[in-house]
Structure formats: C-alpha cells, structure tokens
Amino acid sequence: MVMMIIATLADDSDKVFMLNLYKDYYGLVRKIVYNITHDAENIEDLVNDTFLKLLAKISLLRTFESCKTAAYVVYTSRSVAINFIKHRDVANKHVYYGGEKDLREALVVLEETIEERIIHQDEIKEMGNIILRLPQKQKELLYFKYFLEMDNAQLAEVLGIAQASVREYLTRARRNAKKLMDKEMANNHGLQQPPANP
C-alpha cells in the first residue's frame, strides 16, 4: 500500500527519496516493530504505517544526515509499535472481561506478569540512563547494538564508520558504560570505587 502512495507523489525527487528510504530502512523497521510487538500477523501493516508516518515528514527527513535519519526512523518505528500494543491490550482487556475464565486465577497471573515487567523496565531504565550519559556516538552505537540488535555491518552503515572499527568502538563504549554503572552502584550503596588500574 505504501509503495502505491509513494508512486503517486507529484515531486519526482520526493518519490526517489522515499523509495530509497523504503529500500534502505525496510529491514530495520520490520525488525524493530517485530521485536516490540512479536506479532507476525500484523507486521506488514505496521511497517506500512511507519512509512506512511515518515512520508508525512518528508521535508524534515530530507534535511537530516544519514545518522539522524536512522534515529528518526527508529523513533517512528518504536512509536508505531508501542501504539499498536496499547490498542491491542485495550481490545484484549475488553475481550478478557467478557470471557468465562476464573477471574481470580487470571488476576494472579496478570499481577506476576506486571511485577516481572516492572522489574525488567526498571533494569532497562537504569541502563538507558547510563547510556544517555555517554558521548553521542557511543550512545547511538550501544542503543542500535543492544536494543535494536543490529549487526556490525548495519552499525557501520548507520553510524558512518568503517566496519573493521565497529568492534573497537563497541569495546570503548561498553567500557565507558561499565565505568558509569560501577560509579552509580558505588554511589547508591555508599561504597568507595576501586582505584583505577595504573
């Protein structure tokens, strides 16, 4: 569907830009959407929704460098996926309350799931806060690697660095994140930090 809409664009340069964007980022958008929703049945619709949102922002996208474009595509994909989950959860809640299951048993399971989700979210939030304090390139590198599970070739392309250098950049970024995490833990628990290695 989105391809048909792109084909109807009046401005040929917009058409070429969007076709290239679709070709370059289709795989990434699909992966992000699936990693968040785990819904194979609706994935193509969600990918289309993402590109339709991007199509509406074509003039803004054309001003970005490739790294910012990638970040914007990631943000839009996540937004579409999260909205889908919210709507699905509301729909499931209505279906659930209309069913004949034992409500008390289901609520216990739901409570345990929510508790696990909160703990997991706290861990992700803490790690996210650490990553936010890193330099911009390291921040993006760790986010794309561990949250979006991009491989080294994708990282090199999105961040504009040589593929052979990705491992070195990752090592440096992880080392800095670990230092910040250790410092944070030491501050939270009133511990002294171990001396730096000479």
Automatic annotation (TrEMBL):
State the UniProt keywords alphabetically: Sigma factor, Transcription, Transcription regulation
What are the residue boundaries of the RNA polymerase sigma-70 region domain, all occurrences included?
Answer: 21-88
Domain (RNA polymerase sigma factor 70 region 4 type): residue spans on this chain: 127-175
User: Which InterPro entries is this protein grouped with?
Assistant: RNA_pol_sigma-70-like, RNA_pol_sigma-70_dom, RNA_pol_sigma70_r2, RNA_pol_sigma70_r4_t2, RNA_pol_sigma_r2, RNA_pol_sigma_r3/r4-like, WH-like_DNA-bd_sf
> Which Pfam family, an example, fits this chain?
Sigma70_r2
Member of which family? Belongs to the sigma-70 factor family. ECF subfamily.
Q: What's this protein's name?
A: Sigma-70 family RNA polymerase sigma factor
- Provide the species name: Desulfosporosinus nitroreducens
